[in-house]
Design goal:
The structure is a homotetramer. Chain A is built from 13 helices and 13 strands. The first copy, chain A, is an alpha/beta fold. Chain A is elongated. The model of chain A has no long low-confidence stretch (mean pLDDT about 95). At the B-D interface, helix 10, helix 11 and helix 13 of B face helix 10, helix 11 and helix 13 of D.
Chain lengths: ~400, ~400, ~400, ~400
């Protein structure tokens, strides 16, 4: 009996070629795994394509709820941004795929997994580190790092020789390298490789342009419980995926969530990426507003200092690592009081906070008011507060320490 | 001869009352200091008002260039945001005022300084910690923490008794407590004290609304040298203040830079503030884009982790502290290669990056390209990279350490 | 009925005077609270003294186990040191006292608490911030900040006038200001106020000098479970307090755990303190050794970076704060695998690690060995690992970035 | 003309074999580089050995002063420790060797460098990352990762075949893998590979045992200027290397500076190492004491939080990186006031601080004293200080936030 390898299979041309290449080169029996994580195209057609390639064990799964509930929402609890701008739409999906690949390998008795990520990118790292962390004895086959089909021509010739139908090319043929899921669509490559050239308007698929967005603001509310969104516009019984999906629609039609950045890859080079994250962009802003009245100051500040590192862990593929889990314990602990409702106005690319309220609000009108405060706060306390905060500086200044520039 | 006190004097009603109160209560000779830091109203009228109050030594100064060059720009080198949102428009102006108060005290032989900040806010802390750090023997008189004129009625009665003309009230009478300078205008108090009520559109003074902004994008370029902007649209010989002023105009007419947040004050309570920072908002986005192609990855990440702390130092009033100076050494060192040009499109509240270029760009098209890369990068290297990064996780997993949730 | 105040009462002269002063000045009924936290002197005599002062409600409690289990051990899970040297012996006891003061106040219907800490130190802050965090409406009376008895003469005169027996002076009259509990003894004041004068050998009470310690090493083992010590020398059923007490004896007779430092107080000045922490010093070293084979690298590094901040929270009195609790969640999560046995040799002030073993050891002899490793590690992997780690530096160097000094 | 390769050549058996292997395998002309960095054995004999191997260009250099002045001292400015214990004796020497290898390559027209570090360790990473950062186009040949001579037998057979004299084995043949320089000697491998076995006393070469050290303390002083030691016992005109060498002798005869740890390598596994760092151990303690009276509190705390990361950079081989240089700017800035004299007593493994004095001392006896302080500090200030620090916690507690466990 042939050894088995579980392949993360999209049904597209690239992973179809990999399927055949694994069969030919390694004499492996390929098990395919195709997941719906909200990429916006049917996954079921992958079945016929896999069958056509002679695959016997085909796994096709809808993982949208798992993805949003167990990956996206925990990440958003920390207002996570990589390098100040990237909402990690691709990064956060990879650990889920890695987990299912390993589980299916265990289930089917496969000794290896394989994927279609290139040898220059972050995704290979995310898939493989995740897999190794979950199963230290798993083998990984990364065809892009091994084969000689790295040009378009070589790939086409291979298809021809092996009679792989070119219609395996996925529907949305694009001049860009794309990745899509319920959190975002990313675009890389092609003309984007010049960071001084703006992207073509036609590239964007999930959001309208600012110009095309309606002039009238759309107002919504988002309710949070313990740091996670639980409803939009107070609609009951929304699932995590339906919340994100709803916010994607609302954000998309209002031109919200486009981003065009140059980021630093884990493998060492800078890379330009364009991202559409409409729902996530709304969520990020709303979550911070929810925290602004419910989270303690020092907790907020400490979390803000740790966030870049948490983001880096996710970006670099260390979701399944003990340091991420320990940080998650910290983050989840902070979110216990983050419950309430945020009101937002969405208009032409802007997410504007209109109000925030919470039963566990730490906002104390009496303490802050410019009006009479009924003794809530004794202004005289500030004198001692300032004087002791300044004491070390005064001691230094008396010694001639220059605190000026 | 009476002791002297140097008062930070706006020419408005509040500090005029303080002037008289210092004369009456402390029998001090008051020296006034009024600075133009871009608040958008004339400072010269303060002279006549001060004279009317019997002030003999009157300091009126244009500090716009000092403010932008020595405070705003150094702060922007770190992409500084307090609590993820506040651009620190008020916070960064206070150290300059504190410095001049102390210098004028030394020049005029005054033993004390005074200011009109309340006992509940951050500004008292910023003025006083700054002053103590620069002159450890200076005395501080904070009338708001001492007197009993903390209601509007009491203040008016005091004016009447002491014949302080009510026209001393500054022109832009407002239901809000405001602070303005070349970086921003802030609004607090009044109806804003309820964080669930949105601000009245009429409140905003420096930006048009998203609805009223033009539909056509305005495109600009900003050139940076060593982390600081040196020109807008390649206009030569722009001063720091003229750059910020230009960006304010451009941003203002495109509805850019409004912010409405609940923040955590150093003295312990949460406070709701609305801010208009049009030029700063453009600058922040442009600076990050400039860094994205010129700054090393690890330098960026380390700086991002330190930024919240640097922001907190400024917010809390520790500009003139050795820890801020040491952090500034770090920040300034990072900015040496941050030079080049960023192209932006501004439209209806949005700041969109259209391109970035630099002679010291670290963006290496050959390394990143999906096309043939001429051997710049050996994909096989990724295998070892991944395997050694995963080694500790595999060792853990072999021992039964659970890396999953 | 008079208002009540709960006083942290040692039975010594100082708090006896405070008891009388509270009765006289505030007309309060004083409730005393005296705790045995291992200070090494009887607490029961405090009863008669309190009775002699007319106190009706007297709380005397043995809190040694609570202290070690719920405060000392959780703190040691992070290898906590303030400013690199101080084991926080006093700091970690204060939250427990604050907690009991507040609970007794609630139990007895008292509206206030009081303590004998001076207005210059950290302890007032720790008591009061702790109390406010646990009961926001509690009142605090800090006699040292209010009265005029701050000289020895004034205090003695007050005793004479009020007939407070001077024998209330505690047994170990000392030229130093001391604090003792099961974790440490501290010494401050007197000749120690000159940081260039070494302490008198006679000062130390819990440890012998290096000269007087035996020449022969004493060997022990400490067993840990989930980060906490559970036995010394494999003796079964040891309680937390008995473990620390045992280590104190062993360390004390071997001259271990003296420390003489200048530290930075929260209230702003530098202060010289001498500390004896024999058991804690052994425990710190042993715990780190236990972690060295059981804790993941990145978890260790992240924890090490957070430790100074955690230590500062405890030093400054923020044990009962949400940020400490969130950090504790992180720390406790890291400790799950920290179980096993450490062997130590103790001799003349030195704590030397002789061995560490654990069923959950991550130390992999096959991976590290210089001998044949049976394929556990492929040295060729290092090439790619190094090359990709260096990629960004090479890109920079190609652009003329100077990485040299 | 043959291509050249510059080899880091110790004169020992291992690098002699590498020399021959490079000549045979790559047909390269080998240029040898041998440096005296205080390893304690003559470097000149390497010349004859290299000549015997047919090497024409032989570089032998005394780099002791460069090593201590430009690498060791800058590192000690941050009280640098890796994982709380390791003084980085090997790590800090590698960047200097990498720099000279690259410079000699440029000087001699060599296209490659080579070294004798194994494929499992940190040193290969440090050499190579350093070299790549300084010359992005340099080639690296790491024989241990390429050849099949990784067992002792294979090596000996190779020697026999190629007539490499076995007396090339360096004098101090040892069952351990050792590295020595002016900062430390390290021992790894052999029986040390079992972390539960204590090292043989005979292993240690630079320090006497605690038992053998004299009973009488030896007292010394160390003077610092701007963070660096400038003299021991006030001897004038000491060079950096002579200071470290002197402290090594003093420490060594008093049994100071042994360390036995399990550390985490950059390449992913745990490794047990024993280190002797007598002078460095004294210096670390003395430097911290010097800082304790001269460094501002917040500067100290921030530096302490950054130190683990700085240590990790050095450990992992990123000395020649922009992030290390930026951190160094921060560190060097902090050290400006760190000048004065520290008195120490050294006895049987212990380094005890006896006093510290400085003209720029921030220690203010008047502020801290328990005696009358002449109004330097107003104890009443503490009330406001505490109350405002507690305000956010009280607000939280009023809302029912549980701050207790």
């Amino acid at each position: 009996m042939a050894d088995k390898v579980v392949l993360a299979y999209s049904g597209g041309l690239d992973t179809s070629v990999i399927c055949r290449w694994l069969q030919d080169t390694y004499q492996k029996e390929v098990v395919t795994f195709t997941a719906d994580i909200g990429q916006g195209e049917e996954v079921e057609p992958a079945r016929a394509k896999a069958e056509a390639l002679g695959v016997k064990q085909i796994f096709i799964e809808d993982l949208c709820e798992d993805f949003v509930r167990d990956y996206v929402f925990p990440m958003f609890r920390a207002n996570t941004l990589y390098e100040g701008e990237y909402l990690l739409g691709t990064s956060i999906a990879r650990p889920l795929v890695a987990k299912r690949l390993v589980e299916i390998a265990q289930e089917t008795g496969a000794e290896a997994i394989s994927h279609g990520a290139t040898g220059k990118g972050n995704d290979q790292v995310r898939f493989e580190i995740g897999a190794y962390a979950l199963d230290p004895d798993i083998n990984v086959i990364a065809p892009h790092r091994e084969w000689d089909l790295n040009s378009r021509g070589a790939l086409m010739k291979y298809c021809e020789e092996r009679q792989i139908p070119v219609e395996f090319t996925r529907g949305h043929e694009s001049p860009y390298s794309m990745d899509a899921n319920l959190l975002h669509i990313s675009y890389e490559g092609g003309e984007l490789e010049n960071p001084n050239i703006e992207p073509n308007e036609a590239m964007w698929r999930r959001t309208v342009s600012i110009q095309d967005a309606p002039s009238e603001p759309e107002r919504i509310t988002i309710r949070f419980q313990r740091g996670d969104p639980v409803s939009v516009n107070e609609v009951q019984s929304m699932t995590p995926a339906s919340i994100l999906s709803t916010l994607n629609e609302i954000g998309g039609r209002n031109g919200i969530g486009r981003s065009d950045i140059v980021e630093n890859r884990f493998v060492g080079m800078k890379s330009r990426g364009c991202y559409e994250t409409p729902g996530g962009t709304i969520l990020l802003k709303a979550h911070r507003a929810m925290e602004s009245i419910t989270l303690d100051r020092e907790v907020t500040h400490l979390r803000d200092e740790l966030m870049p590192r948490y983001a880096k862990l996710i970006y670099n593929g260390f979701w399944w690592s003990p340091e991420r889990l320990a940080l998650q314990s910290f983050i989840d602990k902070t979110q216990e009081p983050v419950s309430g409702v945020v009101s937002l106005s969405l208009c032409k690319g802007n997410v504007v906070i209109m109000g925030r309220e919470s039963e566990s609000s730490l906002y104390d009108t009496m303490a802050v008011t410019f009006d009479e405060d009924e003794g809530e706060y004794d202004q005289a306390d500030a004198t001692g507060f300032i004087r002791l905060n300044a004491l070390r500086l005064r001691t230094g200044a008396r010694l001639g320490r220059k605190h000026g520039s």
